[in-house]
Amino acid sequence: MEKRLDYITDLMALGPTANARTIQRRQTAHRLAIAEAWQVKPGEKILEIGCGQGDLSAVWLIKSAQPGM
User: Fold this and answer.
1) What backbone torsions phi and psi does residue 46 show, to the nearest 5 degrees?
2) Over 60: is that where the pLDDT of 31 sits?
3) Rounded to the nearest 10 degrees, how much is the dihedral formed by the CA atoms of 9, 31, 19, 53?
4) What are the distances in angstroms from CA 60 to CA 12, 53, 68?
5) Which residues contact 42 (CB under 8 A, 6 or more apart)?
6) Is 5 a residue whose pLDDT tops 70?
7) Do the Cβ atoms of 4 and 62 come closer than 8 Å?
8) CA separation for the pair 63, 56 (Å, rounded)
9) Angstrom distance (rounded) from CA 11 to CA 41
10) pTM: predicted TM-score of the whole model, two decimal places
11) Euclidean distance between CA atoms 50 and 5, whole angstroms
C-alpha cells in the first residue's frame, strides 16, 4: 500500500512544497483506506458522480486496474 500511496501522492500533490505533499499524502491515505474498506478489486467498474478534484478517482483507478496495466 505504501508504494501506491507514494505514487498517487506524487501525481496529485499541488505545488512543489513539502507541505503540499504532506497534506496530499494524508488525504490519499484516507482515500486508500476507504477503497480498502469497500473492498474494491481489480477489474471492477466504478461510477463516481461529483468527483470534485478527482483525488478519489485516482485511488479508484489504481485499485481497480487490471494487473499489468
Assistant:
1) -130, 130
2) yes
3) 80
4) 13, 13, 16
5) 63, 64, 65, 66, 67
6) yes
7) yes
8) 10
9) 21
10) 0.65
11) 23
CA distance 30 to 38: 12
Q: Give Cα separations from 40 to 11, 17, 18, 46, 47 (angstroms).
A: 21, 31, 30, 9, 12
> Mean pLDDT, to the nearest integer, of 37-46?
83
Helix H, strand E, coil C: the string for the chain is CHHHHHHHHHHHCCCCCHHHHHHHHHHHHHHHHHHHHCCCCCCCCCCCCCCCCCHHHHHHHHHHCCCCC
